[in-house]
Amino acid sequence: MMDVIIIGGGVAGCAAARELSRYKAEILVVDKEEDVCCGTSKANSAIVHAGFDAPAGSRMAALNVAGSRMMPTLAKELDFAYEQCGSLVVCLSEEDRPALEKLYENGITNGVEGLRIVEREELRAMEPHIADEAVAALWAPTGGIVCPFGLTYAFAENAAKNGVRFQFNTEVQKVEPIDGGWRLQTSRGPLEARCIVNAAGVHADELHNQVSDERMTIVPRRGDYFLLDHTAGDHVHHTIFQLPGKYGKGVLVTPTVHGNLLIGPTANDIDDKEDTATTAAELDEVRTKAGLAVKDLPLRQTITSFAGLRAHELRHEFFIEEAAPGFVDCAGIESPGLSASPAIGQEVASLVQRILNLPENPDFDPHRQGILDPKTLPFAERAALIQQNPAYGQIICRCETVTEGEIVDAIHRVPGARSLDGVKRRTRAGMGRCQAGFCSPRVLEILARELGLPQEEITKCGGTSRLIVGTNKDSL
């Protein structure tokens, strides 16, 4: 019997795993997908919210502010992309100004530092492309942007470095109490642990309701986005939110840490917890609303659109508590869950430690080194690296200038890439303008070679998403 099983390898589950690895325990993370970061954590706004929006006094507010404060130090410790660019909530009419002031007061109550209201002229100086109708904005200098993949992988890799194990393609089908703990019936057989952490995202309510009479209802809330090319990346310099007002609740426009421009999301409650298809209607809504706060948006520079699901619990709160003896919920983690994830991990770990009375891990190492990007090196160092390992001089993805050396590194990490999407999210090979049109065959070849598998077994994103069904020679 293990000490802890964490169900779900999203950013919250991986943050909890990393914090729990500070203790001496046998810890396993299981996920029904082929990798970590395959659910809500891979398709969101990539925003570190300052914390002015969550209801004052809520756990959501407290963990948002705490997580946001932790990000700068954590980014250095775990080596992931993060930038504290600040955010602006734009007010588009004088009649909505009281709502802007109320948002400011809520942020002050939540403990957000540096908040102030900027007027029209200062706002236009900060953001030349702000809409002409804008009258003022709430400026939050502690707002930021982050790579959601990079953050999740950083948590997971550091957890693995400190002894946490990961098991993928393992769907938890049933939870049942046993003497001294819990048994999970999974698609790969039973697993047992003294304590369970339920970080199953949009499916967390299904597991919770198996062990508790207090019902939980999670509704998948889908949001559609446009991602624009690097050529559009400097259209805005801060995250631009719209103040909900007479035009309804708007969508955000933000730069990304990789130099793109991101626009979205919509918010549409659906029934299917696996439905991440974009729709024409929702993308039209993004187009219409985005231009209300930011003018001259270069939407012709769109390179892809995508949709993600938020785990919206009807009470709109984070649930981090012991739902049954030894069964800990980490549920309802919707926005600002990415921002709050470092603090969520701490709270989950603290709760589990109190249940199990775990001793500290004297060998815990809080540091993690990210994948080396040769582009960031001075010319002489880059040349020396290529001389030592020629794979770092072999460009595989031309759009994002990703080398074979980076892809090999991504594959051999723990947990490492096992699919084209796993490589893409770790290295950005396939994230550029051509959206993997040119580099996919080479990435597939490298995966097959490094994993020792036939190319027919390499998938786009796990499961049955194979790209090759056979070879021409075999069929002749």
Short synopsis of the structure:
With 476 residues, the chain is of the alpha+beta class.
Notes on the protein architecture:
By secondary structure, the chain is an alpha+beta fold. The chain contains 13 helices and 22 strands. The chain has helices spanning 11-20, 59-78, 97-110, 120-126, 148-161, 204-211, 280-293, 337-356, 379-388, 404-412, 420-427, 440-451, 472-475; strands at residues 2-7, 27-30, 47-48, 82-83, 87-91, 116-119, 136-140, 144-146, 165-167, 172-178, 181-186, 189-198, 218-228, 239-242, 252-255, 261-264, 268-269, 302-313, 319-324, 327-331, 395-397, 402-403. The strands form five sheets. Strands 1, 2, 9, 10, 11, 12, 19 and 20 form an eight-stranded mixed β-sheet that branches. α1 links the parallel β1 (2-7) and β2 (27-30). α1 runs parallel beside α8 and α2 (59-78) packs across α8 (337-356). The mean pLDDT is 96.
Fold topology:
Blueprint: E1 2-7, H1 11-20, E2 27-30, E3 47-48, H2 59-78, E4 82-83, E5 87-91, H3 97-110, E6 116-119, H4 120-126, E7 136-140, E8 144-146, H5 148-161, E9 165-167, E10 172-178, E11 181-186, E12 189-198, H6 204-211, E13 218-228, E14 239-242, E15 252-255, E16 261-264, E17 268-269, H7 280-293, E18 302-313, E19 319-324, E20 327-331, H8 337-356, H9 379-388, E21 395-397, E22 402-403, H10 404-412, H11 420-427, H12 440-451, H13 472-475
Parallel strand pairs: 1-2, 1-12, 2-9, 5-14, 12-20
Antiparallel strand pairs: 3-8, 4-8, 5-7, 6-7, 10-11, 11-12, 13-16, 13-17, 13-18, 15-16, 19-20, 21-22
Helix pairs in contact: 1-5, 1-8, 2-8, 10-11, 10-12
